[in-house]
Amino acid sequence: MRPGEERPVEGGACASVSDLELLKLRAAECIDAAAERLGALSRAIWSEPELAYEEHQAHGVLTRFFQSETPAGSWAVQPHYQLATAFRAEWGSPGGWAAPRPLHLGFLCEYDALPGIGHACGHNLIAEVGAAAALGVKGALESLAGLPLPVKVIVLGTPAEEDGGGKIDLIEAGAFKNLDVVFMAHPSQENAAYLPDVAEHDVTVKYYGKASHAAAYPWEGLNALDAAVLAYNNLSVLRQQLKPAWRVHGIIKNGGVKPNIIPSYSELIYYFRAPSMKELPVLTKKAEDCFRAAALATGCTVEIDGGAHDYYNVLPNKSLWKAYVENGKQLGIDFISEDAMFSGPSGSTDFGNVSFVVPGIHPYFYIGSNALNHTEQYTEAAGSQEAQFYTLRTAKALAMTALDVIFKPELLERIREDFRLKLQEEEF
After folding, report:
1. Containing domain of residue 221, as a range?
2. ∠ at Cα 404 (399, 408), nearest 5°?
3. Are both 316 and 414 inside the same structural domain?
């Protein structure tokens, strides 16, 4: 069907639709046509969960998916892109336009799992959404004889979101340098165009004491476990004075080897979260004082090692998520209210760092289950057939929004202006 033609709509009626609406319908049709292959892609990742930076099977499944697209060679695929388990797949619209450079649209895939409970955050569905949305945009653009400007559709496979921050590694390697807008979506319990994912800093705290016989010569020892327990309790007391949106949570990873040996070593891992990168250092300083106080009280020495990467808070881009909501509603997506968006619970993601270098959208989507993320029940839901309908519907909404960005220059300008203003607000 060509732009300007009429097509049947629901209920059997005929209506004239705009060229852009036709392209959006074409994108949705392309996603539906690939539904079986996309579902198989998701199930392959879900059935063999892999931890951060170890997603070799998922990497292979995804790169083969794009390499096998017809016609052969339509996607230029770079396996092991900057990282062993990252990849880049690129498609460029044909034509010889006079535009200075193509518009670069990025679609992000995540695919790492959680230890012990597999894909309890549904990253197999994130990979599917990114791949599906990119296929939809490519298919829609291929149906046109010409475009007002050249477009590159780029799929980035971004490992290690749960631990380490693969997107931050890729930012540092220059993978996001030329992207204009990026798209991804995360499974949840509701449909939200945005959630205020917060900044996060993690630390490993190591206490070094002195071993001794716990019964015969306890006075000769320096109890590193006591230091860990005191630190844990110090932070529990600190919570009374924390701001409502601040979060501190951690575990004692190592507390000794035998009850009759005074522990000479203990280890804790803690995460600190705050709404913005401006507040995060304030919270971190308070927590580190608690760790040092425990060392002083027990006579132990302490070593505090920060994680390789801090996760930044996700910057909202109102123009972009409003376009996404408009498209999603056309597909029957029922979104939570804007007030609920900004007051709801949230976690942290390395997409926050991406949102500081390129305008982007990171909506959340319902998958047919009320189970909570990071539970065994959510693992089951993420691998269910029911989740497929919601996942592909979300991919269609992302693809439709990307087409708006391509064919509505005024929208792209508003997106860029929103990005610029938010960056100014967040200077730290």
Report:
1. 199-306
2. 160
3. yes
